[in-house]
Amino acid sequence: MQTLLILGASGDLTGRLLLPGLARLIRLGRADGLHLVGAGSDDWTDEQWRERLDGAFAPALAKADDAGRAALQQVRDDSSYHLLDVTRDGLAELVRTLKGPVAIYFALPPAVSQMACSALGPGSLPRSTRLVMEKPFGTDQASAHSLNDKLSKLVPEQNIHRVDHFLGKATVFNILGLRFANRILEPVWNNLHIEKVEVIFDEDLALENRARYYDGAGALRDMIQSHLLHVMALLALNAPSTLHERDLRDHIGSVLRASTVNLDDPTSSRRARYTAGTIGDRGIPDYVAEPGVDASKGTETLTEITVSINNQRWSGVPFVLRSGKALGAKRKEAVITFRPVSHLPVGFTGQDAPTRLRIGFGPDTLQLELDVNGPGDIFSLDRATLSANLNETDLLPYGEVLDGVLAGDPTLSVRGDTAEDCWRIVEPVLKAWSEDLVPLEEYQAGSVGPDAWPSSHGRA
Ligand code: NDP
């Protein structure tokens, strides 16, 4: 028996992502014996909370077999709700009344999570308690350090899950399996053979009424600091000897410790904001005309940074990380571009394009783009693409997150020192932007992004 206590039970994250993710886990029999407790500042009865569960569990229930239905019903009927201001004393008292090891999910505004941690004194929680912290983890390196300091006085590092839902297991293990379980890639996975690595996360969604959060964050903090740097680390790390938590997270940490953005290069960071346009049949207003946006903040909705990994394997290879909103098409992939061959036999005609490997994230795909002798002129080069669709997990990303939390396995959560390092990498960029050393460009909603950015034309 163990308990999952969700703080912020009436919030958006809980309703839209956590509870549906949890429902899938329960349906698949991976949360047996779970006691679910909601808490928050809304004065709800247990029954009102269970009605919320009914809504969130419905899609999983519709697909469940008899065992899955019974498990979902059991968790629902056994669940309770507590009215609680988490910034005051009651949290530790509540935890002490709950059964089994307790995982506390802080689905709260970041400032409230910090206050809740401050309100919990050392020794106030059983050491076996797991704490699940949402992004953003701090607002800069110093605040992330101070939050780590507070958390380390409450429970051991092993019991702290800093969520990066982007690291759903399937995606992560696609990269690791591809790289380390195949003989052909590792020998060429270095700066002798690879020219450039891009990690792209373009969304066709615009602000979607999330100005309260997004306008204070922007694309760099929202996606690159918290997610894409980790994907980069998985693409770049040396082979760990095991996939256990310590080995894997040591290797991720080692890549990020070696990473910097070279601000002497004026193109090492770019930022832009969308203007009015259309995406499909949707009319998108100017970003600054969206309700709740403060134009004077100069929030970027698209960014691209070039990271250098300063070690022997990667010196000289740009890692371009790009993410943005309101683009004409979704594009979620890592693109590894190989260097040209050292000598192409004289006599070939046609296009000599670089070998490229594309790893797609959702849908999970692999594409290897090669030059071959195609039909027609036997000396003419043609492009061929080897494609594979990878099996996708039945769990939603938050199902994966909760799976790790309930199993007490922090392998796919962000370790404290690494969370600080991610801020160290982006902080100089944020500082340069705040000093207006990098122009805030514009792109039309529904376009590919600013025309002058090479990454806007990456799918050529
Ligand atoms: P919301 O504002 O929607 O929800 C926050 C919840 O916390 C509300 O239920 C609120 O209750 C409750 N709350 C606020 N203050 C207190 C308090 N003192 N004591 C008890 N409960 C309190 O935020 P989100 O759900 O959107 O976000 C939660 C966290 O998840 C944030 O850290 C966010 O960055 C992160 N996140 C969110 C994502 C999303 O898509 N929503 C995606 C990824 C991360 P009330 O409404 O009554 O004030």
Automatic annotation (TrEMBL):
One of its GO terms (cellular component) is cytosol. Gene3D superfamilies: Dihydrodipicolinate Reductase, domain 2 (3.30.360.10), NAD(P)-binding Rossmann-like Domain (3.40.50.720). One of its GO terms (molecular function) is glucose-6-phosphate dehydrogenase activity. Transmembrane segments: none annotated. NADP(+) binds at residues 41, 85-86, 135. Residues 6-174 form the Glucose-6-phosphate dehydrogenase NAD-binding domain. Pathway: Carbohydrate degradation; pentose phosphate pathway; D-ribulose 5-phosphate from D-glucose 6-phosphate (oxidative stage): step 1/3. Its EC number is 1.1.1.49. Pfam families: G6PD_C, G6PD_N. InterPro entries: G6P_DH (IPR001282), G6P_DH_C (IPR022675), G6P_DH_NAD-bd (IPR022674), NAD(P)-bd_dom_sf (IPR036291). Keywords: Carbohydrate metabolism, Glucose metabolism, NADP, Oxidoreductase. GO terms for biological process: glucose metabolic process; pentose-phosphate shunt, oxidative branch. Catalyzes the oxidation of glucose 6-phosphate to 6-phosphogluconolactone. NCBIfam families: PRK12853.1-3. HAMAP family: G6PD. This is Glucose-6-phosphate 1-dehydrogenase. It comes from Arthrobacter cheniae.
